[in-house]
Amino acid sequence: MPAKSVHQNGHVITNGSTLPVLPKVKKTILQNVPVPEPALSIRIFRVVLLLLYFWTSSTIIGVTQYLGTPLYLINKDHYYRFMAFTKQCMTLLVLSMTQWWTTTTVRVSGDESVQDQIHSLPDGRLQCNFASRMVLIANHQLYNDWIYLWWTAYTNRPFSHGHVYIVLKESIKYIPLIGFGLRLAGFVFMSRNMKTDTPRLTRRLGQLTRRSNDGKGGLEPMWLMMFPEGTNLSKNGRAKSVKWAESQGEKDLKYTLIPRSTGTYFCLKALNGTLEWVYDCTLAYDGVPEGQYGQDIFTLRSTYFERHPQAPIHMHWRRFKVSDIPLETLEDFHAWLIERWNEKEALLDEHSKTGNFPSSINQGKSITTEVKLGRWWEIWQLGAVLAPILGGIYAISRFVL
């Protein structure tokens, strides 16, 4: 029998050669979520269809955004409302891709602070009744994490997916077409240099405290989504986290990276008095071998292009009153945030041993559901603005000619 060493970087080392871990993980998941493996020609067709669908829909959304930009000079309330609609369309695009091109099971749990806010509908869909204004923090496991958090905003009542603002790395805004669309959607880009980020954050957060023009005078809905760790869990990220912990004399973490507190602290200080809650989500994925990283196994490519079934996703929710969070100094807040991440470590340790998070909702059990649209025909919203305009141009051109 060939000698085997421990798993490293998503591979098993066997007599000096590496064998990918993914097939073993995939086989385990397939035992629970059977997905037939299609022929090569079908897989190629699926990839082509996916790319065509994504880029066509992205172009439609992008053009719609560009057509709405003049509203900023005419009426800013109408402009922000219009961009919120295009952001809803982004959500529908991502969720429809996730529903039609892969299999995604989610198990949702929570503590007593959210026990009356998470429900399972008769048809099996999830419904949340979270606050309309919040800062949402979460640990970062995969590149896909933001998809499932955004999906939660889609399940919220009232709908909140048009008012999600994700804090992203600055490099993302330079992606052709997509980057500019995310900028129009109001996403927040950070360079991880507070000297550069401070004026940028001040301006963007000021825009997120505007009053609604609905006659009630309340603040606009807002879900500000942040990953305090700064990057997803990986070998490189783990090495940096260990080095930072040693330099600061802090205990390193096993299932997460040590969170960066400066950006989160700045946002909470700037938004203090305009929102009541900070929501926290702990994310975990089944099927990740001990000592490995989910990002090396469940990639965007394997999930959507190769249709490897996504491991069941576990989301554990809780919330904290902003008034109970120490914001007097950065040091006080950092200690509070580290304490929350230590609690995440305990949650993730229990998940690794039992396969589940503890839950105070649904009679002590997690809610098992899927990432999907409420109604398939919602996707037609993508053309709600562009189609009438193109139809009008066509009709006028026919009349003139």
Quick tags:
single chain, 401 residues, alpha/beta, eight-stranded mixed beta sheet, three-stranded antiparallel beta sheet, 12 helices, 13 strands, 43% helix, disordered N terminus
What does this structure look like?
By secondary structure, this protein is α/β, with parallel strands linked by helices. The chain is 43% helix and 17% strand. It contains 12 helices and 13 strands. The radius of gyration is 22 Å and the shape is globular. Keywords: Acyltransferase, Membrane, Transferase, Transmembrane, Transmembrane helix. The chain crosses the membrane at residues 44-67.
Query: Uncertain spans, ≥5 residues at pLDDT below 50?
Result: 1-20
Number of domains: 1
Task: Give the structural class.
Answer: alpha/beta
Rounded to the nearest angstrom, the distance between the terminal CA atoms is 79 Å
Q: What is the N-to-C succession of helices and strands? A: EEEHHHHEEEEHEHEHEHHEHEHEH
- How confident is the prediction overall: mean pLDDT? 84
Beta percentage is 15-25%
Q: Please compute the radius of gyration using only Cα atoms.
A: 22 Å
Q: Strand count, sense and closure of the main sheet?
A: 8 strands, mixed
Number of helices: 12
Global morphology: globular
Number of strands: 13
Q: Kindly report the spatial arrangement of strands forming the biggest sheet.
A: 9-8-10-7-11-12-4-13
Helix proportion of residues, in percent?
40-55%
